[in-house]
Design a protein that fits this description.
The structure is a homodimer.
Chain A (H helix, E strand, L loop, with lengths): L8 E5 L4 H11 L3 E7 L18 H6 L4 E5 L4 H11 L8 E4 L9 H5 L6 E6 L9 H7 L2 H4 L15 H24 L3 E6 H11 L2 H8 L14 E6 L5 E6 L2 H10 L3 H11 L7 H6 L1 H13 L3 H11 L2 E4 L3 H4 L12 E5 L5 E5 L23 H9 L3 H9 L3 E2 L5
Parallel strand pairs in A: 1-2, 1-4, 2-3, 4-5, 5-6
Antiparallel strand pairs in A: 3-12, 7-8, 8-9, 10-11
Helix pairs in contact in A: 1-7, 10-14
């Protein structure tokens, strides 16, 4: 944990990936993040993957370093407590992250009556408030039809919920930006972040929509060919698959050199009357001529021969490896200072990451595990809402709140 | 453009997707973002997709609303100007976003000698400083082997550069967070954001690594089946492909109702002695029994029949559509207030998005196009570095700087 956001208090009422990652990023940069959930857990509390004892590795991954309050969110009393938590007083508080419906009991208009300068960051599915999740919105953007081998027409969904993840990080950016603005002008704001707008805007930012508008149809699927440049997966003599990329002139020259292809490519250039060195687009349009040269060059050598040659030449390449191999890869996991082995609420101990960025000038601090559900109910009710022990006891008795493990 | 970051001045020395989107998000929230490039353009200035006149739709999508300065970055004089721009004085300035090498002429240590409280956000490939791009790092994380139909073993790369995009948004969050910290303690910082750490941490945040550690191997590929829940693509009687998701008990109940499957599923539950309603994991492990029921239900009706039934019941679903259809879809593009039709430096006019989030309390302001390369060279040299017209003229004559279109 870094301390950039020290002193901020954020309340999170959320589920799934986008809003929880927003809270996670804030917590790992030093904010106090208090998440409330339904007693027994919300819709994401038992999501797969699971530990052998049924605990969700997903939930405990996404909620590291947060505090947990358990409330009966179906009851008026529980809902009132959620509203009061989101809007509790404090200078760098009144910061609420949620994916609850835009017009429900946690609407901005409702919460604003409790705290005028509230900053509310709201993850949404479709911008009109209708049900949408990463996979359904991704299907509407054309990407599954652009993904996968060209010889197979079946749509291919992404496995990584990219829109959720981008939305979560963008919401964290939106929240701190709104806080900066509030520090200047004293005003609260709602930042609505629908996955549909984030998807639509991103497809435009990357040029996909302008291209489709010009061409009348979207980019065809082309397997692992990198669009508009030279890049693809190739198979070595010993059957390993390596990804090769050559976008800049330097990357191109180095790849040719390391693969002993300078002569072969020069001959092709002479035949075609072109120069590949300065035009990455040409390497793409002529890829059907270039690929056989590269396929042959990869097929001549083993991965063990190519790897040091590529590294020595500074080629941009990578081996496909399964995640179990990545866990032993010192570039990713093994000994990576971003990770610390800690005990999690599932009862398991395994390495977990802190902040995804590194600040060389600052100590990383400890990676903190996710809370047990309801672990901080009493503490938060006392500190944020000033409730007495008797009052909190009555709420427990009435089933409006619960402590760790439902007690 | 919103005004949350009004008064901030950010300098960007960057290429490709991650660092430019960081600058883009900052600009669209109101920061002044000044990007410098090599005269004639950096390695991303001609990236595909292209307009008919060769202008990059990619570059003009990623650099909307920024100012552009063109410098001879190979010369000591040009490099010195880049350093002075990144560290120019000003209260909410000294904010630098880059993907230049960690140890080159734009290293934090070097820049810090010019401005002690500099905030430098640096996108990197691998955390050790070696060459890595989205596609090579993605290959090392195991995702391409988890993606695509189960009956095809070929690795499938994502088409959307998800790691670049997540890194860009996380960097924007990191920059504003570091500014909040500097406002408090006066200290500068470098925020290093390697794609490799962002990828490794995200796979852990989502539970992929803990799962792989427990099982000894990564999740097998399973086509479009949503892991640990009920969700997949199904084909209607008229051959349309629809994505259906049922994660929460409510989503499940609504899907059964809309598909007239309540009875069929109850019979299967009786046979198996289970209840699917309360256990999404069970719907996943028993999906081979459930799928035939759903396949038959979809095959009985057309998409035109199913769509209103799904919407009326509140089912979480989506049709696969190509991007050209999305452009006519009012939920995404047509009439979406996030987009405005503007003229771009390519000479084309087409709709472009502003900030990806919406603040209902604030006017959206104008979506500003990307600059022409070097359009703001003279203005920025005069305003930030206090150079006289004569001095700027000499730099032009010496080829150290250039104005719009290389002049």
């Amino acid at each position: 944990m870094y301390d950039l956001l020290q002193g901020l208090r954020v309340v999170e009422g959320s589920a799934f990936v986008a809003a929880p990652t927003c809270g996670l990023y804030l917590a790992q940069m030093g904010a106090e993040v208090i998440r409330f959930d339904a007693i027994g857990g919300g819709p994401d509390f038992r999501r797969w993957p699971l530990a052998d004892n049924g605990a969700s590795l997903y939930w405990e991954g996404l909620n590291k370093g947060k505090k947990s309050v358990a409330l009966d969110l179906a009851s008026p009393a529980g809902r009132e407590i959620a509203q009061r938590l989101a809007t509790a007083p404090g200078k760098d508080a009144g910061l609420f992250v949620t994916n609850f419906p835009v017009d429900g009991f946690l609407s901005y208009e409702r919460l604003k009556t409790l705290r005028e300068d509230l900053i509310c960051v709201r993850v949404m599915g479709w911008a009109d408030g209708s049900q949408g999740m990463d996979y359904t919105i991704n299907a509407a953007l054309g990407l599954p039809q652009m993904t996968g081998p060209a010889d197979d027409a079946r749509p291919v969904n992404h496995v990584l919920a990219a829109w959720d993840l981008l939305t979560g990080a963008y919401c964290a950016f939106g929240l701190v930006s709104a806080l900066l603005a509030r520090t200047r002008d004293g005003r609260g704001r709602e930042i609505r972040a629908p996955l549909s707008d984030i998807g639509a805007a991103t497809m435009a930012n990357l040029g996909f929509t302008a291209e489709t508008g010009l061409q009348g149809r979207q980019r065809p699927r082309m397997g692992n060919d990198v669009f508009g440049a030279f890049g693809r997966d190739f198979v070595t003599r010993d059957g390993q698959t390596l990804m090769l990329l050559a976008i800049t002139p330097k990357q191109w020259a180095k790849a040719l050199e390391a693969l002993d292809l300078t002569g072969g490519v020069a001959a092709l250039e002479a035949e075609l009357g072109v120069s590949f060195a300065s035009d990455e687009g040409l390497r793409f349009t002529q890829r059907d001529r270039l690929y056989p040269l590269f396929e042959a060059a990869f097929a001549r050598r083993t991965a063990a021969e190519l790897a040091p040659a590529f590294d020595a030449a500074g080629v941009t390449w990578g081996a496909y490896q399964p995640l179990e191999a990545a866990l032993d890869d010192p570039r990713l996991y093994k000994g990576n200072p971003v990770f610390q082995e800690i005990a999690h609420p599932s009862g398991l101990s395994y390495p977990a990451p802190g902040a995804m960025a590194t600040i060389p000038q600052a100590p990383r601090g400890e990676v903190r595990p996710a809370p047990r559900l309801g672990e901080h109910t009493d503490e938060v009710l006392a500190q944020l809402l000033g409730m007495s022990a008797a009052e909190i006891g009555r709420l427990h008795d009435a089933g409006v709140v619960a402590g760790a493990e439902g007690r």
